[in-house]
Amino acid sequence: MFFKSFYSQKHAFHLVDPSIMPLITSICCLTLTTGSVLYFHGYSGGLEATIFALIALVWCMGVWWRDVVREGTLEGHHTNIVQLGMRYGMILFIVSEVMFFFAFFWAFFAAALAPTIEIGAIWPPKGIDVFNAFEIPLLNTLILLCSGATITYSHHAITAANKSEAIFGLILTIVLAIIFTALQGFEYATANFSISDGIYGSTFFMATGFHGSHVFIGTCFLTVCLIRLSLDHFTVQHHFGFEAAAFYWHFVDVVWLFLYVAIYFWGGF
């Protein structure tokens, strides 16, 4: 009786079980980075190491995500106080992402507001044929704004216990995300400048490219939520996984608005 009371949990927090996944994931990340560097510099074996590490990393993500889903859905470890801590963690993660993109905006405005003599003291630099802000960029802006509305609609449907409408809104969001990614890929394919074309090419492709990678990650996030929603993992009171995906997607929307206004609209004139 003494040992039972001694080892019983007397708090509402969840202490995760020991897992080897963080170690394996870190090894995969190191291998992916090393293989990419070798491939970029033309060394043999670099491409094979990169592909292998990428496949292994995707596997690690799936297994690790599965474990977290089991903890919250099947084992019931995600109590209200645990969900509150995860919300704070997600907010802090998004704040760190804001600082990440802030660096790209800083570089862009530092070059645009005071163009140096090396680029002709003009912005955009001579020879750069910038994109028309009222063509594909404007269409992509409307698409992302619509996706923000559809994911909000899906969230409200979950809180109203309307599963079919929640699935419908989430599917629309994923479809809009795929269309956005396809249009951005078409834009990159038709660009008459590259990332190596001076400061404009570097800042443009770094900022919009990293945003595109965030859109891809968010699309994967939403797809997992769609699968979980279909499997009845979410309830009216317990759907933090969806809330985290919605937080992330709204962040992606806001960043794109700043990118559109700063780089495509203001930076293109």
Topology, please?
Blueprint: H1 2-7, H2 21-40, H3 46-74, H4 80-113, H5 136-159, H6 163-190, H7 198-230, H8 240-266
Helix pairs in contact: 2-3, 4-7, 4-8, 5-6, 5-8, 6-7, 7-8
Under CATH at level 1, the class of the largest domain stands as Mainly Alpha
Overall mean pLDDT? 90
Helix share, percent = over 70%
Please give the alpha-carbon distance between the first and last residues.
77 Å
Provide the structure class. mainly alpha
CATH fold-level topology of the largest domain:
Four Helix Bundle (Hemerythrin (Met), subunit A)
CATH homologous superfamily placement of the largest domain: Cytochrome c oxidase, subunit III, four-helix bundle
Could you describe the largest sheet, including whether it forms a barrel? none
Order of helices and strands: HHHHHHHH
- Any idea how many domains? 2
CATH architecture of the largest domain: Up-down Bundle
Notes on the protein architecture:
The chain contains 8 helices and no strands. It has 269 residues and is mainly α. It folds into 2 domains: 77 residues, Helix Hairpins; 189 residues, Cytochrome c oxidase, subunit III, four-helix bundle (Four Helix Bundle (Hemerythrin (Met), subunit A), Up-down Bundle). The N terminus is likely disordered.
Write a short abstract of this structure.
The protein is built from eight helices and no strands. It is mostly helical. Helix 5 packs antiparallel against helix 8 (240-266).
